[in-house]
Amino acid sequence: MTDIDRPLRRDAELNRQRIIAAAREVYAERGLAATFDDVAQRAGVGIGTVYRRFPTKEALLEVALEERLKEHAAAAEAALRAPTAWEGLTTFLGEAAKMHAADRGLRDVALGASISLRHLDQIRDRVVPKVKQLVARAQAEGSLRPDVTAEDVPLMLMMVSEVAHHSHPVRPDIYGRYLQLLIDGLRSSPGDGDLGRPLTNDDVEALAREWLPSPHRPGPA
């Protein structure tokens, strides 16, 4: 049994809960650029206390983001129950964009930042097939342009979430305008322009490594 698994004294458990609550706040604000120092300061504990309970950043993220990741997966599953395929796809895009705008940590992890989490792997196994179904159903319905792929979805969400986080101090809701512009561009119509070569999953992962922070290196100041 590891130190993390052993039952905790009351004061140790209170510290653990403070750390988790602080981590949720700090990662939501700063994403994976946040450090253990940031979490310790927010929680009002020493950094050694954070390391005793969570020896790695992955261990803390696993706990701090578990519920958020489950909500993300549930949104994809609920979208498949929408009355039309188009409504399902656009509802999921809207819900995911809202979640990512509110929580940078969730955005970084859900969109493929360079990190391996047990729960993340489980969530991806739930989400990715659902997104592929949403895209396939909308194309079969004739509402989604035929050259869009499921691999376009995370890139769209990356773009919208960048707008959300950079514009938050001025217009926290402005990302919705650009999400709607992107959604309008997804509609199937006779005037569709050529999108060029579609993305592969390797392309998405490479772009995520470039755009999203690593948990082990500091983000921009």
- The number of helical runs is 11
Say how many strands there are: 0
Average pLDDT confidence is 87
Form type: elongated
The CATH superfamily label of the largest domain reads Tetracycline Repressor, domain 2
Backbone structural class? mainly alpha
Q: What's the architecture of the largest domain in CATH terms?
A: Orthogonal Bundle
What CATH first level of the largest domain would be assigned? Mainly Alpha
Describe this protein's structure.
This protein has 221 residues and is mainly α. Helices cover 66% and strands 0% of the residues.
Give the topology:
Elements: H1 10-30, H2 36-43, H3 47-53, H4 57-64, H5 66-79, H6 85-102, H7 104-110, H8 118-141, H9 152-167, H10 175-186, H11 201-211
Summarize the structure.
The protein is mainly alpha-helical. It has eleven helices and no strands.
Features:
Tetracycline Repressor, domain 2, 66% helix, single chain, Arc Repressor Mutant, subunit A, 221 residues, 2 domains
